[in-house]
Write a structure and sequence with these properties.
Distance between the termini: 64 Å
Shape: flat
Number of helices: 7
Helix content: over 70%
Structural class: mainly alpha
Largest sheet: none
Order of helices and strands: HHHHHHH
Strand content: under 5%
Radius of gyration: 27 Å
Length: 153
Amino acid sequence: MKRHISNKRGFPSCYASSGMTRRRLLANLLVGLGLAIVCAWAFTAVFASLGSQTDWSKAWDYRETLWRGWLMTLGISIAALIGSLVFGLLFLFGQRSPLVVVRWTCRAFLELIRDTPLLVQLLVGYFVIFAPLFSRSLTEIGWDDKLIIGVIL
């Protein structure tokens, strides 16, 4: 008979409700601790071997550029997170709409996005959507560019 961990012994209730035994919980904790020790040892070993060979003065010379790049990455990540939250909520409410056309359109768009690989979405977004916005107008494009556009499409 399995002995389940209860809240009376100070363990979180999620372990008691999931049916995890005391032995399984201890095994999971030991495996996690072992993996953390191995990762810490590998991290220390790699960077200890790089310490005498790597010249970190160049990183200090470019610290302002690296800082600006990090802030730009952080800003883009926050904007993408907020944008995905807004669009996700819009499509959620669109699927719950009483209008059949709105419901089907939102559902079709979500199925299209979910069923295509991320690399395909990135390539379509770059070559089909954003590249024409920032390139020359179609009247200025020569025959060579039409061939490239045809191959891309």
